[in-house]
C-alpha cells in the first residue's frame, strides 16, 4: 500500500515532524537533496551538464542543497534562481547562502533569453521551481522557464511534483514541467496519480527523507493499490471447499442487440472465481449464454425488461449473495424497476452501464443507494449522475468521485486510465494497472463480472471494487505481453485473468 497525500495533508505531516519530533526542516531539506543526488547520479556520465532551476520556496531550497552536493561529488552542475536572493526565506535561504559563500555557479535570471541560453547548454534539467503549494496559474518568468526546459534535449527531473501540476487534482495550471522522472518525498502526492499529472510526472520514485510517520494519525485513508494489497483481500481456497463456499452470484444483463455484455460479464464472473452464477437475460438473447455452459440462465419473456416477472426476479434476488445489474440492458423503462428491486434488497450489488443510466434518469433511485452498493461509471456516466459535464469530471475525478460517494453513502469506482475507488466511509484507492488496450467496448462488462465474483467470495463491496479494478488492469497488462495494444479485445482480457487471478 502506497499512501497518497493532498497538499494540506503533507503540510500537516511536515509540521508534525518538525514541531512534535524535533526534526529540523533543514535536515529534511538536506535529506531530500541527497535523494535527488542519488537519482541524478544514476543518469550522468563524463559529458553530463546539470542545470537546476530554482524558485523561491522550499523546492528552490532543495535545488540549492542539491547543487552543493553535486559539486562536492565532482559533478558539472549549475543553478538558475528565478528571483532575487532576498525572496528566499527560512531553510531555503540558508541553503542559498551556503551556495553563495562557497562560490558555486548560481545566477539570478531576469529574462527569457537567459533561460533559453542556459537550457540549451545543459543536458540534465532539474525542476525545483514550485512544490505542492502551487494553486494558481503559472505565468511570467517561471512559465517561460518551464517552456524552455520542456523544449530542451535533456533528461528532465522534477523535485517532489512537476512545477505547474496541481498537487490535489493533477491538472495543469497554465503550463507544467514535462518530467522524465519525478522524485517525490516520503509519500505520493495526489496530483501525481490522475491524468494529466501522471503523464507529466514520468517515472515515479518515492524517496524517504527521514520523516517517521509511525503513529501519526492521518486525516484520510488514501492510497495506491499494489499486488500485495489484493493478495491480502482475496481469501485462500480451503481444500474441503465446494461450489457453495465461493458464493452465489446473480447477473442481470443484456438486451436485444447487446447480448455480448451479458456473455462477457458472465465469463469474467466465473473466471474470477464465483462458485455459482445465475444470469437473467431477455429470452430472445438467452441462446448467446450457451457459450457459457457453467452459468444457469434464467430468461425473462420477450418484449424487454418491462415484461420481467417481478416475483421470479425477487426469488432470484433472495437466492443470491450478491448481484450485478446493468451491462447491455438498454434504456427500457423496465430497467428502472429492476434496478429499484435490486437496490431495495440491500444486498452487495454492482451497478454498471444502463443501471447507472436508470439512476441518473430517475431521481428517486438515488435514495435507494446504500453502503453495500458499488457504482462503476466512466466519466460520461459520472457526469450524468452529477448533472455536470464530462470535462468537469475529468478535471477533478477524485473530487467528483469522493463527493458522490459521501453524498449518497455508496461505494463508487470512477473508471479511467487511473481508476478512482471511493468507499462510503471516505477511503480512497487508486488503481494504476492497465493499458490503452482496455479502451474498447466490453471492458466495463468484464470489470462488473470480476467485482461480482469478488463479492461472491466474501469481499466487502469497497474491497471487491479495488480488487476488480486491479485485476482487470493486470489481466490487460498480461494480454499485452503477447497481443498488441491495438488488437486486445475484452475476451482476451477475460482469458488473461487465468494467469493473474490470485
Descriptive overview:
It is a single chain. With 502 residues, the chain is of the alpha/beta class. Helices cover 40% and strands 16% of the residues. It has helices spanning 7-20, 25-41, 58-72, 90-102, 112-120, 140-151, 197-201, 227-233, 259-271, 310-319, 334-344, 354-360, 379-386, 390-395, 397-408, 443-456, 461-479, 490-500; strands at residues 2-5, 50-54, 77-81, 106-108, 124-128, 155-159, 181-185, 188-189, 203-207, 222-224, 248-252, 276-282, 296-300, 322-325, 349-351, 373-375, 411-414, 419-422, 428-431. The protein has a 12-stranded mixed β-sheet, sandwiched between helices. A hairpin with a 4-residue loop joins strand 17 (411-414) and strand 18 (419-422). Helix 3 runs parallel beside helix 4 (90-102). 51% of the residues are buried.
Detail the topology: elements first, then pairings:
Blueprint: E1 2-5, H1 7-20, H2 25-41, E2 50-54, H3 58-72, E3 77-81, H4 90-102, E4 106-108, H5 112-120, E5 124-128, H6 140-151, E6 155-159, E7 181-185, E8 188-189, H7 197-201, E9 203-207, E10 222-224, H8 227-233, E11 248-252, H9 259-271, E12 276-282, E13 296-300, H10 310-319, E14 322-325, H11 334-344, E15 349-351, H12 354-360, E16 373-375, H13 379-386, H14 390-395, H15 397-408, E17 411-414, E18 419-422, E19 428-431, H16 443-456, H17 461-479, H18 490-500
Parallel strand pairs: 1-8, 2-3, 2-5, 3-4, 5-6, 6-7, 7-9, 10-19, 11-12, 11-14, 12-13, 14-15, 15-16, 16-17
Antiparallel strand pairs: 1-10, 17-18, 18-19
Amino acid at each position: 500500500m502506497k499512501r497518497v497525500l493532498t497538499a494540506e495533508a503533507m503540510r500537516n505531516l511536515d509540521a508534525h515532524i518538525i514541531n512534535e519530533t524535533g526534526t529540523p526542516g533543514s535536515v529534511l531539506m538536506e535529506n531530500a537533496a541527497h535523494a535527488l543526488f542519488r537519482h541524478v547520479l544514476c543518469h550522468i556520465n563524463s559529458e553530463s551538464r546539470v542545470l537546476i532551476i530554482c524558485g523561491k520556496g522550499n523546492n528552490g531550497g532543495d535545488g540549492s542543497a542539491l547543487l552543493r552536493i553535486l559539486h562536492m561529488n565532482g559533478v558539472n552542475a549549475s543553478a538558475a534562481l528565478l528571483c532575487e536572493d532576498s525572496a528566499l526565506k527560512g531553510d531555503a535561504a540558508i541553503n542559498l547562502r551556503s551556495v553563495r559563500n562557497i562560490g558555486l555557479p548560481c545566477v539570478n535570471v531576469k529574462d527569457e533569453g537567459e533561460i533559453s541560453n542556459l537550457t540549451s547548454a545543459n543536458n540534465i534539467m532539474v525542476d525545483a521551481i514550485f512544490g505542492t503549494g502551487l494553486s494558481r496559474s503559472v505565468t511570467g518568468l517561471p512559465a517561460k522557464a518551464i517552456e524552455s526546459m520542456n523544449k530542451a534535449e535533456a533528461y528532465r527531473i522534477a523535485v517532489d511534483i512537476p512545477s505547474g501540476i496541481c498537487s490535489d487534482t493533477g491538472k495543469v495550471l497554465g503550463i507544467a514541467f514535462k518530467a522524465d522522472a519525478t522524485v517525490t518525498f516520503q509519500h505520493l502526492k495526489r496530483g501525481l496519480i490522475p491524468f494529466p499529472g501522471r503523464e507529466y510526472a514520468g517515472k515515479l520514485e518515492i524517496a524517504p527523507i527521514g520523516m517517521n510517520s509511525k503513529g501519526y494519525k492521518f486525516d484520510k485513508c488514501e492510497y495506491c493499490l499494489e499486488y500485495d494489497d489484493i493478495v491480502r483481500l482475496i481469501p485462500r481456497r480451503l481444500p474441503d471447499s465446494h461450489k457453495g463456499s465461493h458464493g452465489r452470484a446473480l447477473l442481470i444483463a443484456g438486451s436485444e442487440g447487446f447480448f455480448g455484455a451479458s456473455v462477457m460479464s458472465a465469463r469474467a464472473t466465473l473466471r474470477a472465481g464465483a462458485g455459482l452464477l445465475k444470469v437473467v437475460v431477455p429470452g430472445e438473447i438467452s441462446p448467446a449464454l450457451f457459450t457459457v455452459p457453467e452459468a444457469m440462465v434464467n430468461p425473462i419473456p420477450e418484449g424487454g425488461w418491462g415484461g420481467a416477472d417481478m416475483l421470479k426476479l425477487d426469488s432470484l434476488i433472495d437466492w443470491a449473495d450478491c448481484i450485478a445489474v446493468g451491462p447491455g440492458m438498454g434504456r427500457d423503462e423496465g430497467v428502472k424497476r429492476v434496478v429499484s428491486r435490486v437496490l431495495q434488497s440491500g444486498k452487495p450489488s454492482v451497478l454498471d452501464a444502463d443501471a447507472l443510466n436508470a439512476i441518473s434518469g430517475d431521481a428517486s433511485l438515488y435514495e435507494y443507494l446504500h453502503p453495500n452498493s458499488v457504482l462503476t461509471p466512466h466519466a460520461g456516466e459520472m457526469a450524468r449522475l452529477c448533472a455536470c459535464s464530462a470535462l468537469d469530471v475529468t478535471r477533478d475525478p477524485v473530487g467528483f468521485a469522493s463527493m458522490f460517494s459521501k453524498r449518497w453513502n455508496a461505494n463508487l469506482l470512477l473508471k479511467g486510465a487511473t481508476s478512482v475507488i471511493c468507499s462510503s466511509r471516505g477511503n480512497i484507492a487508486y488503481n494504476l494497472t492497465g493499458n490503452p488496450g482496455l479502451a474498447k467496448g466490453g471492458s466495463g462488462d468484464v470489470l462488473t463480472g470480476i467485482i461480482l465474483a469478488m463479492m461472491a467470495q466474501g469481499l466487502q463491496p469497497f474491497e471487491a471494487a479495488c480488487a476488480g479494478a486491479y485485476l482487470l488492469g493486470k489481466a490487460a497488462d498480461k494480454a499485452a505481453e503477447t497481443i498488441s495494444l491495438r488488437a486486445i479485445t475484452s475476451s482476451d482480457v477475460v482469458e488473461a485473468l487465468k494467469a493473474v487471478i490470485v
